[in-house]
Amino acid sequence: MTRRRNASAASETNDCLGSDTDEKFGFQSGSDYTLETFKEYADEYKRQYFGVKGATESIDFRDDNREKRLEPSVVDIEGEYWQIVEDPTDEIEVLYGADLDTATFGSGFPKASAENKISLDPCVTQLSPSVLKSEGIPVYRAVQNPGEFVLTFPRAYHSGFNCGFNCAEAVNLAPVDWLPRGLCATELYSEQHRKTSLSHDKVAREAVKEQLELYFLQSNNPRLLRWQKFCGKDGVLTKALKARVIMENKRMEIVSSISNVRKMDKDFDLSTERECFLCSYDLHLSAAGCECSPHRYGCLSHAKRVCSCEPSKKFLLVRYNLDELNALVVALEGDLGAVKLHRLEDFGLVLPMQLKLLEEPKIPWRKASLNMRDH
Fold first, then answer.
1. What is the pTM of this model?
2. Residue ranges of the JmjC domain (predicted)?
């Protein structure tokens, strides 16, 4: 292939570029644009590209305005796009911006943190829908117009492209009923050494905090119905946390040779995301380290590969021990006596006076831990 055209795709600022000397694809920094100059570039390229290609019967002709006579329809642009993907005759260079700082440029999905940032994984595997359909895989198509939202569900392969000058925003949503799927995704990403777009354990922690607060303030609180849906013995949040505890228990067995277990500082990952040096697994709940490398951490599965030192020199950091995690599960099931034993300060909760009067739960914690292992 030879490079012949530059194609404008979206109103952000990175280059997706194909090299003249080899067939590599990647992202490199492009020129600086203002919103106005980028729109001018995009509109001019669109006019020239489809002008060179020539008008067809499917193009929307508008006799009252010559500027719009060569304006292609969505169907035209889509056909050209998949033609490039399926049977490329030209090498296309696309101006496409990603990772804009929404604290500076604004967001349609504002959040409290000033560090909110759009994070788009590079636009690297592209498969034509016709190939998928030929294999019996269902394919659905949607055209998103300004002001509209498109939701993609967990584990759904999706792709898209812009039909010209455009500014779009993608955001990851994590409702409570996503947590079981998110747990599976976290493990899969770890196997593939991929970074997660958000911390499953942080999301779970916030969900637990909110649900406990609802339960504490249950009188005359209409949101209590949400607690009843997510918690209790059969609640989706309870089941997700229980599965996470079982998984953490298995990981702890892997590092049984490391006896130095320390309590993780509550600010361990406050200012920066802590990830396994090898597989990028989120380290919000636990981490392994060594005195020889104070800033290098691994997940429990890769604790032995943090360094070559003896296990006696290594240490584990845990945000909660297994008894505390099991206590939290029991609390979500509805036994608020378990909350009395849990470290509520870690959740920023204030124990109501009536809960302080509750007796200790009758379930022995050591036995509860063993039961969790047997599930």
1. 0.66
2. 1-190
